[in-house]
Design goal:
5 strands; two-stranded antiparallel sheet; three-stranded parallel sheet; alpha/beta; about 140 residues
Length: about 140
């Protein structure tokens, strides 16, 4: 079996067009290092998929702070949010319960004005990606 392709973090911005339920949507991917310019895209945003590298425990607190910044932005007060814990296939990750606790996900959900969904995925293996597409389709139907 061939080895999976190497992955790299997004360091810029990528645009991808998808057609779901006969509707075209544009997904704008903004890397974590682009955090300072994220607000310039908020007014055109209809939903958020917030990807967390759950194998990089050193960045969990930084990711949590970035998420709180996104959730507190006024233009995003009513958008649907999907938090994706990625790299769940890695051998050295915390359990989902541990990462949710460290991320304080229950407190975030309780205080957020947005509806929040949480999924675990492995972008490398494809596990969980069908659920991400299902979430996107459910948002489009609204």
């Amino acid at each position: 079996m061939p080895s999976p392709p190497a992955t790299l973090p997004t360091v810029g911005t990528n645009l991808t067009d998808l057609t779901l339920k006969k509707k075209k949507i544009t997904v704008r991917e903004l890397g974590g290092c682009m955090g300072p310019i994220w607000p310039s895209y908020f007014k055109d945003c209809t939903s958020i998929i917030f990807m967390v590298d759950s194998a990089n425990t050193a960045q969990i607190s930084s990711s949590c702070i970035q998420l709180l910044s996104v959730l507190s932005a006024e233009p995003l007060s009513n958008v649907s949010v999907l938090i994706v814990f990625n790299k769940r296939d890695m051998p050295c990750i915390m359990s989902l319960m541990e990462i949710k606790s460290l991320f304080r996900i229950d407190d975030i959900i309780a205080s957020a004005t947005q509806p929040i969904t949480i999924l675990e995925v492995s972008a490398r293996s494809g596990e969980g990606l069908k659920e991400v597409l299902s979430w996107l389709e459910s948002i489009i139907v609204k």
